[in-house]
Amino acid sequence: MKPTPQVTRTFILSLALALACFGTQTRALAADGAAKLTISTQGEEMAFDQTVLTVKAGQKVSLTFKNLSGMQHNWVLVAPGAADEVANASIAAGNDKGWLAVGPQVLAHTRLVDGKKSDTIRFTAPAKPGEYPFICTFPGHAGIMKGVLKVN
Ligand code: CU1
Questions:
Q1: How many angstroms does the Cα of residue 43 sit away from the middle of ligand 1?
Q2: Domain 33-151 -> CATH class
Q3: pLDDT digits over 63-91, tens only?
Q4: Separation of 81 CA from ligand 1 center, angstroms?
Q5: Which residue of 3, 18, 76, 108 is 20 to 30 Å from 149, comparing CA positions?
Q6: Where are the domains positioned within the chain?
Q7: What pLDDT does 4 receive?
Q8: 53 Cα–ligand 1 center, Å
């Protein structure tokens, strides 16, 4: 039986979709199998361009934070429920510490990134599934410059 144009078109679309998915998967993993995540500021806005990132529990992660604005920002992953505590402690830590109080509640972080610069960090995702907040700890930013890393 000769396939109808409809069936042929469906087949070609499925094939294209499969190839597109394969391409995405390939790009999403670094050479060592680490998940590659990229997050940036929303242009000049004091906000991240994504508020939800997703990884697997215990997975190696390579995260690049691109600061597209003219201000300094960072990306800081914290323990569940610890966003306010880390934000306040980071303000107290001061400029000399890059506006970040490193401690047990800080699970991963970039450096304080100057405007139009980026930083790439590697870390291992938490072993326990859950929702882990990420914030920018520059004074006054954490309340609005935030998101969640979903660990599945
Ligand atoms: Cu910020």
A1: 12
A2: mainly beta
A3: 999 999 999 999 999 999 999 999 999 99
A4: 19
A5: 18
A6: 1-30, 33-151
A7: 58
A8: 18
